[in-house]
RNA sequence: GGUCUCUUAGUAUAACGGUUAGUACAACGGGUUUUCAUCCCGUCAACGCGGGUUCGACUCCCGCAGAGAUCACCA
């Protein structure tokens, strides 16, 4: 297999939200699969939109997802630097080459004049193309002057790995700006030069670049360089409407999902499979499996709607997968930031025991905060909540009192408080009281937790311990007595 | 408006000329000694429309409709 050299080339204008991460994931997979190179290049040529610290956010996201780069910031590489502003002179040199062979020109036209061209073409209802207004005499280039490409408009055909065979006419090819007035290159130009110098042979980017591709082809041609494999990635659509997912739709950064307790494995899995499949019915993929099974031709060519519900499902799958494959100790390490505040004073072992009985109920790690408080502090005592339960309310307070009394006596007699003995004791209680599991267990469960749900009763009581269990049961018993007086 | 692209259930997708159109999420129902979840079983639900080509079309071709992208000294 040919070694794929490709790149993720974000602009440091803020965090990368999940709608954009996929254009890092797919090239990464392609590069790793072929034993090639994955480059991170920072396209910081737009000074106006530049955001301090954005590069760190971007790298943070890639690292979290496990998308390591072979060349780029922090790691360097044979084609350093990897920030375009630091490569400024290079682009100018290359633009001058084009001027020298007549394929580019310094443009003296001021912006008002250009706007005038645009307005008058619009008024005449003819498509505005700058090349129709190309100045006859162009000056020698000097700093402060933009450089434009001299278009060679003609029908163009090309192949896109996702979209198939494509074509476009001359009407979309124009004298695009290569070097801006500020001396920095445009994206349109810079990426062509960099990709060539960095030996990039595959370019993956959003479908919005499709209509600019003919101009890029013209540039490849003008330089006499081979065009790389072109891969257009469809957009991820917002949950509502048909627009591409953007920050306005609340598209969060990948790292916000980290803080919400989404596992990077699940995020990578979900995003990779949103618009790609390997033709099988597999749903859960490790990074290694994605690398092994990835193929460009299975990328979907229409937009895919972002579905957080499915992400949550997948995260739950991953939580269970990690626990069953790696055990609770390893999984526990990932949860340390997600426990309720009151868990602070409890040791790791206790928290691990809680985790081992609750983990299969988690959709996200942050669920721990809501779901486990009663293991660390006495729950908010609410006798009305107890009495409102659909099983509990079948009984009079007198009857509930008796049931609790019997339970307390029985559980007090357990010398060796463990799962096994609790199970036996609870079963015997069902017999002696003659109550159904739903009835007796609901009473006990709510009395010790006052939570909407909790793990199996024997497991819960076992972790809570004898002392806590009995004290909470007694508290409820006492309340029932007082109520009756 | 010009140009380009896309179109299978609510959502993500499978099928690459012959299947009762498969799978997953969601929804709904049921099972596993309480609850919530896991797990298991089941139900509902799709080829945008119209023409061709073909013995046969979700699959190929042509229209139409709908949706999206782009037309910057932003990427």
Model description:
This protein folds into 4 domains: 5-82 and 237-305, Rossmann fold (3-Layer(aba) Sandwich), CATH 3.40.50; 84-233, Rossmann fold; 327-375, no CATH class; 383-484, Arc Repressor Mutant, subunit A. 45% of the residues lie in helices and 8% in strands. The chain is built from 19 helices and 11 strands. It has helices spanning 18-33, 54-65, 88-100, 111-123, 187-197, 213-223, 254-259, 264-273, 287-293, 308-326, 328-335, 348-358, 367-371, 383-388, 397-412, 419-433, 437-449, 457-464, 466-484; strands at residues 5-8, 37-40, 104-106, 147-149, 156-160, 164-168, 177-179, 202-206, 229-233, 236-237, 304-305. A 3-stranded antiparallel beta sheet has the order 3-4-7. A two-stranded parallel sheet has the order 1-2. Helix 1 (18-33) crosses helix 9 and helix 15 runs antiparallel to helix 19 (466-484). The model has no long low-confidence stretch (mean pLDDT 94). It binds one RNA strand of 75 nucleotides through helix 4, strand 6, strand 7, helix 5 and strand 11.
Reported for the largest beta sheet, the result is: 3 strands, antiparallel
Q: From the 3D coordinates, which CATH architecture of the largest domain would you assign? A: 3-Layer(aba) Sandwich
Coarse structural class: mainly alpha
Q: Into how many domains do the coordinates divide?
A: 4
Beta-strand percent range: 5-15%
Query: Nearest-angstrom radius of gyration?
Result: 32 Å
Average residue pLDDT: 94
Report how far the terminal alpha carbons are from each other. Answer: 84 Å
Task: Strand order, main sheet: write it out.
Answer: 3-4-7
Q: What ranges have pLDDT less than 50 throughout 5 or more consecutive residues?
A: none
Number of strands: 11
Shape: elongated
Q: What top-tier CATH class of the largest domain fits best?
A: Alpha Beta
Separate helix tally: 19
Secondary-structure element order, N to C? EHEHHEHEEEEHEHEEHHHEHHHHHHHHHH
User: Which topology of the largest domain does CATH recognise?
Assistant: Rossmann fold
What percentage of residues falls in helices of 4 or more residues? 40-55%
* CATH homologous superfamily title of the largest domain: HUPs
